[in-house]
Amino acid sequence: SRVSQALRENTYPFLAVIVLREHRMTVVGRLEGLMEPETVILRLQQIMTDNEAALITARMERDERSLTQSLRQQQDEAYQASLLADQEKERRRLEEVRRREEEEQRQRERALQEQQRREEIQRMKLELVDQIPEEPPDSDPHSIHLVIKLPAGTRLERRFRRSQSIKYLYFYVFCHSDAPSSFEIITNFPRRTLPCEPTRECPEPPSFAELGLGKTETVFVHDLEA
Fold first, then answer.
1. Tell me, what's the pLDDT at 25?
2. Which residue of 70, 115, 123, 136 pairs with 143 in a disulfide if CB–CB is 3.0 to 4.6 A?
3. Residue 183, domain extent
4. Domain boundary residue among 51, 72, 93?
């Protein structure tokens, strides 16, 4: 066999002692033929003694390789952990950048919407101010005198014909520079909200007379966005 050819034994029984030397398996002792047990033990002890240095070196090399492998594994694990930490840090950074960009975009959109809303309100004021009828004179017996109190403390006075729709009161307040953009008009005695804003369901609100308002009334403008 190949093992027999490698060991080149001459007779039996045959005992070979093989050790790792210089990174290869080497036969360091051969026992051939019949021997007394004591002789075998002595020969083996002598072989071990003769090769003890090589065995110690082999063990040290093995331990060193094991230590080197362990250190390399620890370094690899530390590198992987550091890499994952860096990747997670970069992911969080990119996520924060994306979040800030989205928030800035939302702020720009809100600012644009607010600007468009203000422009639309200004356009509506220019359109509605021309629809407000002329103020009747004090002597008109069919007029109503209104004291209008705005949220900022401004006090307005205006007369309308009692037969006119109360929407003109809404237009008048809406077009005033001190008035809020979203509001309702209420009376105190009795306390009620006047349906003066035209809506799709009621494009033509009732007249002052139809609402039972007297010749002189005080109304309050309530800011719906306050």
1. 79
2. 136
3. 143-223
4. 72
pLDDT of residue 73: 93
Q: State how far the alpha carbon of 178 is from the alpha carbons of 91, 122, 141, 223, in Å.
A: 50, 13, 30, 11
Residue 207 domain-assigned (yes or no): yes
CATH number of the domain bearing residue 174: 3.10.20.90
Residue 164 phi, psi dihedral angles, 5° rounding: -80, 155
Which residue is it, tokens 């890499």? Answer: 83
User: Number of structural domains, the chain?
Assistant: 2
In a domain, 35, yes or no: yes
Preceding peptide of 190 cis, ω within 30°: yes
Note the pTM of the prediction, 2 decimals.
0.57
If pLDDT is split at 50, 70 and 90, which confidence band does 62 have?
A: confident
Q: Which amino acid is it at 67?
A: L
Which of 44, 72, 100 lies at the terminal end of a domain, its last residue?
Answer: 72
> Cα–chain-centroid distance for residue 168?
48
Enumerate residues 6+ apart whose C-beta is below 8 A from 155: 147, 148, 149
pLDDT value at position 3? 66
**Distance separating alpha carbons of residues 40 and 32, to the nearest angstrom:** 10
CA–CA dist 93, 215 (Å, integer): 68
